[in-house]
Specification:
171 residues; alpha+beta; Trna Endonuclease, Chain: A, domain 1; 3 helices; 7 strands; globular
Length: 171
Amino acid sequence: MSHQHIQSAIAEYAQAYERLQRLQESMPSIPGGDQKTGCIGEYYAYLYLLSLHDEKLLSYGSHSEKGWDIKIALNKPQRIQVKTVSAFSKTRTISPIHKGWDELYIIYLSKNLQPEGFWIIKDKTIFGTKHKITSAKCRNPNKTKTGSAIIPFGENRITELRAALERATNA
């Protein structure tokens, strides 16, 4: 592979990055931010929640919020933290998981950035006495014995997530 191929790939990536950035600035359904993989995961989580709740009940947290990413304005507000790992990650390491959520969504993306794994964790006792969990590993959707034992992954709910994405795309 030549330097020309590398430069061409960088230029194509920049164009896609810019398109995504413009959408982040103009569409409330995808959060802003520089970490595009995380933004894509949060967008997928938002569409999942949109299949369960009215859009006016959903809002993204600010970048200073460490414990949650999306809030559902119910009588008792619910806070969702979203962690996204892609197949590009050789280690499948999840960014630090902070306290403050009611549900933790872990999303695994293929190299095409399409969801292959979707787990909803409700057990907040995983923290023990800690305020955050670091270096946890995401489960490989094709190998159920993988992923950090501290996280009770349970069933891969990818069918539910894909159905929500399809409904939103066809709406």
